[in-house]
Fold Vacuolar protein sorting-associated protein 8 central domain-containing protein.
Amino acid sequence: MFSSTDQQHLISSSSICPEDSAIKSILTTNGSTDDLSSTTNDDDNGSIRWLDFDLIDRISIQTQTLEEIMNEKNEFLLDEESEELFGGLSPFPPAYGAETTCSSVAGVNMPKILPMGRYGSVPAELPKSYKLDSPLVLKREDTISQQINTKTQPKYGHLTSLCIGKRLLSIGTSQGFCLIFEKEGSQKLLHSVQSGDSSFGSISCMDFSVDQTRLAVGFSTGALFIFDTNAKRNTNKFIFKSNDVVQPGRGLIHLKYITSNVLLIVDNGGNVYEFHEKRRLNRRKDGNVRCIFTGCKGEVLNISFVHSSDNSVELLVLATFHQVFLLSVKRRSAAVGQLKLHGSSLSPPLIDWRERVQALSHARAFSLRLCIARDNEARLYQVRQRVGGDLLFPILQILKFSTPLINLKWIDDWSFLAICTTENNIEQLQLIDIPQFSSGERKNLQNQKSTIPTFSVNPFVVLDISESVKLVYNSVDFKGLATGCNVSKAMLAVADSICYHTYIRHPEDNYLYLLGADALFRVQLIELNEQLDSLIERSDFCSALMFVVDICCGKLADRNTTTIKTANFRANAFRKIPELVSQLLEQTMDGIDSGHIDELIVYYKQNFHVLIRACVSTSHFNLLYETIYSRVQKDTLCRSTFLEMLEEFVLENVLFQPPPSLVNDYLNYLLCEGQIPQFEQSVIRLPVESMDLHQVMSACKEHQLFDATCYVFNNAMKDYITPLNEQFELLSRFVHKQVLSDHEIVQGNKLLLYLSCCLVGRAYPHGDLPDENLALTVPLETYKFIVQLRSSFSTSSRSSSPQNISPKFNELQSFPHLNILLKFDALQFFNVISTCADAPVFAKCEGRLKRLVDMLISKCVEEDDVENEDIDLINELGPLLITFINGLLQKGAIPKDIYLFTKLIERVFLRRAFPSLRVQKVAEQSAVELLRLVPEIDLDKVLEIAQPVPYIHVCAYIFTMRREYFKLLECFLADPLEPLNVFPTMVDLLNSLREAEQQESLRQFVRQKLERLCLLDSLKTAEFVLSNFPELLIECRSTPKKLPLSFLNNCFRIRREQNFKTLTGGEEELDELFFDYYFEQTIKQQKTELDLLDSKLVDELRYWLPLGSFSDFCLNISMKQPKGLLVECSTLLLLSRGHISRAFEHLFNEGILNKCSQSCVNFLLELTATYPTEAQDGDWLHKLFKHLLNTLQIKSVMDKQEKDPSPTCSDQILHYNVFLTQ
């Protein structure tokens, strides 16, 4: 075996430990030489062999070249930047034999713990699962099988059918023998019954009565006898015997008792009979038979009697080739339901049912489920009974199988056991789980009533039984070979797949029986105790322990046993845990047979994880501390691996009262490994009474572990102030920096969280304080510490350059703790105080929180001093402090102090030292909220400060309160950030103002500031004026030049979009001056793209033509433009003024002769179509055609048409002439 003891020699000879001291420390661990006994022998000379080289040769040692060793060493070299990143502390563990830098380890007399730098880096996949045996157990009933073996008992013939009762089972043979056995116990043969008449033939079916006192036996020739099972052995006591209970030439294929003396009989013609046994009247043994279902309605192939345990439901289920009939026994076989069969008719219909009993708090609930299956589909139905006794059969779900079914039975409430045949005619037992619904899925299905849940199921256990079982089929009886094959073709086709009477389950059992050719088999699900014994038998103690833990934790339950039996087994499993732990521990310490050192470490990790998890999950902590660790700590490698695995459980805080030796070893291991974050998290989860406080506190001080320091001081010494003092001293060293590192930010945030917990009387970082007295004193002491006037540490140490700090400032600085908090993060500090404002330390004494606020205000309103290095902090503090005060006032935590609040607002806004406009906006909004909460503040003083700048939001609030809306709008116009807010403000004012004078003042403001508003947004200005004050346009009719052109342009555009024909809504002649001015100014201000000006104005004129043609003003302006700039515009105006001939002449002369514009040609053609008489009188088309022929070169036109076939001007003229001619 390759154990860690052998591994010690490997370490000593490895190249990674060159120092002799390191080798000696490893070899002499625990001060014992017992570990070396396996490899130390006396040679012939009497000298001691310290190293067994034969053993080393057998071990797989990883060889390394010099280059590999050098490369491996280079991976652990840190450059200067890395050393600065880790603060001078190497993130890697020290080398073997190297002197550690942890002061907490030095001087402590403890055994060496092997660092994990070499071995801890080995990746190991921890065991989260384990393999169990197959849940399906096929067992041969040897006792019965030996008695029915056809080779040893040839007189019986071959086996044909099987019947199972509560305490008995019977097997029928081809020679007419009925063999009755005990089902459990000794399974001895109780009766060997034979009809005594060779004409009866082979036994085809059997059934026990409900009380097990009778056994009905059916034969393939149609004979029937009923046997008394209570008769003495070897006494054939027949209650009934006859060979003519059914039609001649028919054999029996089913028998089913529904009461103690009523028997249902089915023959191979598909007929169903009801047989009533008489009560020995006149001491005659006879009975009567009546047919209740004839085969002409459908041949019955399968039959089942479904009944509940309380007999409230008694149902007879008959399956034919196409459908299933449900008959009520209590209503004299009245039909209560009919279900359609699905699947191929070449497969036999299958019926099975199961009653599920649910134990409720007040009663026991019974649930009957019916399964109807054929081919590769099974349908599950629920049997429900109404209050009146009517039965309902709602379908639960449909299961789709991958292979055709031969037979299907419930094996428990959640699983089916099916017999299927593959394509190669191989018989298989398939265990299939029934899909379960969650509560949400079930609710969705209830909402979708038309949807039937359908699942494709796959077996999770498949067992081949073709050779092992050799299942017997009932094909001979269903084919009617004993009666001359007097059956239908459909019966012949399906008979080869029928095994109704050789695969049997009693309704109250959780196991099934299969009848083979010469043996009887029982199939059941494996029980938990059998599974556990199997794991222990093959020495798989790891899986066995995990299996037992899952049972004890309730993750596994035996589905085959009751709740009481499961609870008893859980208790027995709990008692087995110490034994299994000991066995697995010994197996672990023995190591592995062979392999690399890394494989051994992985083996240790996996097993130790299972051992620790088992002890923790089942609360066997004494077993973990006294048995496992006491055995593990004797081996160096085992102890290191064990401590590494222990880390997960320590961080989960699941260890209960660990001993000091284990705690100290574990913490020492973390320090040696350099795992400082894990060390801190472990300290706060372990009990302080088990720690070496000197070791822990030394490490915390060296590595600045605030959480661990607080935990030790709070729990061991009940001291909550010392951690505060130390952390404030640490913050004072770096809080002056402009940029803080991530580590420094974390340290400060932890301090703020600790302050919050202390002020509200809670434990850090969570939980309650252990003593009510501490809950009263700790918050008060914390508050006193925050507002302390002088500090116990030197504030000058916070700067790396003390000579740059004013000595006068250091002498006069007060409230150092408060200053440190404000310098670090004033906002988060205010959030902490605001959160704790309802705490008893403030709520029970009104002056405390007010005093703190006063100190903060006094800090903010200090006079500017060039020597004050905190001037930037004071400037940033003001807006935050106002917001903080607002929150306290809303909670009612502090009283109103009008003087100080006014002074604060004055100092904040007089400094004008906001770093950005966004900060200024936030400060203004906070000040407005403070003014709203404290209306007693003198608004005049505030306005004197705010208006000159101006501070928009402050001024807006004051003017709104005073109803000075004109000044309010002036403020918004002066806002450099968001001046557009003036427009929604005007709309709001217009909607809220009800007095005519106020509305008039608003109108006057708009009139006076129209140009300013247009500069901001002329479109919004035009929309506001047209919607609310259109009279402003009416007032400017006589002098439209006072209006900005952009405003007027947007007014015309808005009215055009609104389909208005006038600007002010009055008569057209009233708005004519507006359009004249707009027309003239548009021409004057158009400096570029003059070619587009004509088309732009034509577009405007077409809509506003009544205004543009009301006078000759626009016409005269357009005619005065040089070089025919506005030809089309002038033509349109001439037409509107009635000068049609002049319009033709102007368009032809200026637009065609001078400009030769294509648009003018198109316009002329349009005019000729609109005014054909005038065009004909003026002969304008002829003139146009003649001009084009004179000006264009025929050759150039032809060449151009060859290159570009698009129509030219001449083409359009010709086409148009043709059109006119036609």
The CA atoms of residues 830 and 884 lie 6 Å apart. The chain has six domains: 137-525, 533-656, 718-792+813-840, 846-962, 976-1085, 1088-1193.
